[in-house]
């Protein structure tokens, strides 16, 4: 593994990206991440994320998107606030798929849902599965995405 310095996220805090120095660099299984997170005694927090393609909606009206799948502690580790709603709570991450929830990026929420505050608490279909929208990230939160596009974005 190798640590690479990231952006400063505040006084005394540095975002660090850790990747593998083998073929498949940057790819960790969830069990490996969980083991590293649980054994961590150096970093203040360890979160996981991965970009993936999803379909928002269903049938002929489905829209292809680029989404970020994140660990349950992602927002806490990055010190993220929400514009509306909340981020994840621990019980939502204990059993994969048991409580499918989503936090929308601010830009995506504005563009796709016209800044509708009623989106928090509503359900969206992602790859045919119902996800409850629990929050909208703050406008200045880009997470680990240096492009600033946010965690859900149109693929065009």
Question: Layout of helices and strands, plus pairs?
Answer:
Layout: E1 2-10, E2 13-19, H1 30-39, E3 49-56, E4 63-70, H2 74-77, E5 82-85, H3 91-94, E6 101-104, H4 106-113, E7 123-126, E8 129-137, E9 152-154
Parallel strand pairs: 6-8
Antiparallel strand pairs: 1-2, 3-4, 4-9, 5-8, 7-8
Number of strands: 9
Rg from Cα: 16 Å
What is the approximate shape?
Answer: globular
Q: Which structural class best describes the helix and strand composition?
A: alpha+beta
Helix share of residues?
10-25%
- Name the beta content range: 35-45%
**What's the rounded overall pLDDT mean?**
79
Total of DSSP H or I helical runs spanning 4+ residues: 4
Domains counted in the coordinates: how many?
Answer: 2
Q: SSE string, helix = H, strand = E?
A: EEHEEHEHEHEEE
Describe this structure in a few short sentences:
The protein has 156 residues and is an alpha+beta fold. It has helices at residues 30-39, 74-77, 91-94, 106-113; strands at residues 2-10, 13-19, 49-56, 63-70, 82-85, 101-104, 123-126, 129-137, 152-154. It folds into two domains: 1-46, no CATH class; 47-156, no CATH class.
Features of the shown structure:
156 residues, globular, alpha+beta, 2 domains, disordered N terminus, four-stranded mixed sheet
């Amino acid at each position: 593994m190798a640590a690479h310095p990231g952006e400063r996220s505040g006084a005394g805090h540095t975002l660090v990206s850790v990747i593998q120095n083998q073929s498949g660099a940057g790819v960790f299984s969830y069990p490996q991440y969980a083991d590293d997170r649980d054994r961590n005694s150096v970093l203040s927090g360890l979160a996981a994320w991965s970009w993936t393609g999803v379909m928002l909606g269903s049938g002929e009206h489905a829209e292809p998107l680029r989404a970020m799948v994140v660990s349950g502690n992602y927002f806490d580790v990055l010190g993220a606030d929400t514009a509306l709603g909340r981020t994840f709570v621990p019980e939502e991450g204990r059993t994969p798929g048991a409580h499918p929830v989503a936090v929308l990026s601010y830009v995506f929420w504005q563009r796709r849902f016209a800044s509708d505050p009623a989106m928090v608490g509503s359900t969206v279909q992602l790859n045919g599965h119902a996800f409850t929208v629990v929050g909208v990230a703050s406008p200045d939160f880009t997470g680990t995405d240096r492009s600033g596009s946010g965690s859900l974005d149109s693929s065009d």
